[in-house]
Design a protein that fits this description.
- By secondary structure, the chain is of the alpha+beta class.
- It has six helices and seven strands, in the order βαααβββαβαββα.
- It has a seven-stranded mixed sheet with strand order 1-2-3-4-5-7-6, sandwiched between helices.
Length: 195
């Protein structure tokens, strides 16, 4: 691999860098699938046991932004080049200007701000490059860390869908969050003075 100069790279900040999913990422995706609590929060279900072939198929379907399901999938790396998680832009509705973001941070890297930084990168891209206007998302009621992260980036809790997911013998609420482009710009004005 050549030596890359990231000095002016859009998809990074001081702590993390976003890149495309690459063929060799299958192993990391496979290994993180054993974190049942994280997968439960992400998929809102108990999944069948992970398989190597499923991990390789996922990578094959999403490698180098090749997804055909409308998701723009990224791998999140720290500045040491270690994979710390994944993030995607999804549910993009160009007509109405709405979108969502899916994110998972690998267990050893949680609580270090990597998720918040990655979400900020995708929000800036969606709002100021794609001209989208409204970010909509939801988290399970038990997912306190993701709810806190959404509030940290400026999201407002817009409602609760009661007892919408049945997981592990119990019904769970879905907490609905939203953020408009103008709200984001006003909250982070110093970061976007030239926008």
């Amino acid at each position: 691999m050549r030596n890359i100069d990231y000095t002016n790279y859009y998809w990074q900040d001081d702590e993390i860098r976003l890149r495309s999913i690459e063929a060799e990422d299958w192993e990391s995706i496979y290994l993180t699938a054993f974190d049942t609590p994280a997968r439960r929060f992400l998929e809102c279900t108990i999944e069948l046991p992970p398989t190597i072939s499923d991990a390789k198929k996922f990578v094959e379907e999403n490698v180098e932004f090749s997804s055909t399901n409308g998701r723009i999938m990224f791998t999140i790396e720290n500045m040491n080049g270690e994979t710390v998680g994944g993030i995607n832009l999804n549910s993009i509705d160009e007509r109405n200007g709405t979108f969502s973001i899916g994110i998972v941070i690998d267990h050893p890297y949680r609580g270090k701000g990597y998720g918040t930084r990655a979400v900020h990168m995708l929000l800036k891209y969606a709002f100021f490059e794609r001209r989208l206007n409204k970010f909509n998302d939801y988290v399970l009621d038990a997912n306190k860390a993701s709810a806190a992260m959404l509030r940290k980036v400026g999201c407002v809790q817009e409602g609760v869908r009661r007892q919408i997911f049945y997981i592990n013998g119990k019904y769970h609420d879905s907490m609905l969050f939203g953020l408009t482009k103008n709200e984001y710009r006003d909250l982070h004005h110093k970061d976007h003075q030239n926008i």
